[in-house]
Design brief:
The longest helix is centred in the middle third of the chain and has 29 residues. By secondary structure, the chain is α/β, with parallel strands linked by helices. Helices cover 42% and strands 15% of the residues.
């Protein structure tokens, strides 16, 4: 039995994962900004579940949540940084305050959660951290530049973190979901108020009022939750795990395209090296 601390459990993947972890017989600290939204989950597992109010931008709430987890279960074996939301805007349309709030949750909130559990994980020389990113952490669509930037930041930090803590017995994996049938493209999605007509054909189709994908996404959050439990139970973890057939296809095509571009421009790239005198 392991103890999981999962952020962002009110809906979507976080909620499905909390339910699956508890049904599998593990302990779970189930968090949401409003703890009442997860009470129905916790009430079914009185001996193995704790509900906690947690806004990942609130350092005091983070400290209280981790302390409560350690007091109740002794340790946090698995941290899942799932809390986050989407934001749509052409780069020129983005509001600075809204972008700051996006990064406060998607990136700095993730960092704060990690720093809160690492001292105990280091002391025990054990622990697993799953950082939920997105295929948007590998490529950026028009209208999603700021969201992708927040996920690129998560991935860059996670790559370094993995190498820093691997010798200490701590595992880190970036999880990159494709489109899942959650509230991500519905209630949770935010966007800039400004709309510049020149971006109607690029960023415009991804504006919330024009997006028709909500409710039709191929990914099943219940099956994704099972996959993540299987992942944590594996002897070795990948640096990145794609979730969903669309993720495999989209990121695969992106990686192939990047490789072709590197080869196409290789001669110009290497022409910048110092030349050895004959």
């Amino acid at each position: 039995m392991t103890t999981w601390l999962i952020t962002g459990c009110s809906t979507g993947l976080g909620r499905s994962l909390a339910e699956a972890v508890l049904k599998a017989g593990h302990n779970a600290v189930v968090t949401a900004r409003d703890a009442g939204t997860v009470q129905d989950i916790v009430s079914q597992f009185a001996d193995t579940a704790v509900a906690a109010a947690l806004d990942v931008t609130d350092e005091e709430q983070i400290e209280k949540t981790v302390a409560a987890a350690q007091e109740r279960f002794g340790t946090v074996d698995v941290l899942v940084n799932n809390a986050g939301y989407g934001y749509r805007a052409a780069v020129e349309e983005g509001d600075e305050r809204e972008v700051d709030a996006l990064f406060a949750t998607n990136f700095f909130g993730t960092v704060s959660m990690i720093k809160s559990v690492l001292p105990d994980m280091r002391a025990r020389r054990s622990g697993t951290i799953l950082n939920i990113s997105s295929i948007a952490g590998r490529l950026a669509a028009p209208g999603s530049g700021y969201y992708s930037a927040s996920k690129f930041a998560v991935e860059g930090m996670s790559d370094a973190l993995r190498k820093e803590v691997a010798p200490l017995g701590i595992r880190v994996t970036i999880v990159e979901p494709g489109a899942f049938r959650t509230d991500f493209a519905g209630r949770s999605l935010q966007q800039a108020r400004a709309k510049i007509a020149d971006y109607a054909d690029t960023a415009g189709p991804r504006r919330k009022e024009n997006d028709r994908t909500h409710g039709t996404q191929p990914g099943d959050p219940t099956r994704a939750a099972v996959a993540l439990i299987d992942l944590v139970g594996s002897a070795e973890l990948p640096a990145r795990l794609l979730l969903g057939s669309d993720a495999v296809k989209i990121v695969g095509n992106e990686v192939d395209g990047q490789r072709r571009e590197i080869e196409a421009w290789k001669e110009l790239s290497i022409s910048s090296d110092f030349q050895t005198s004959a």
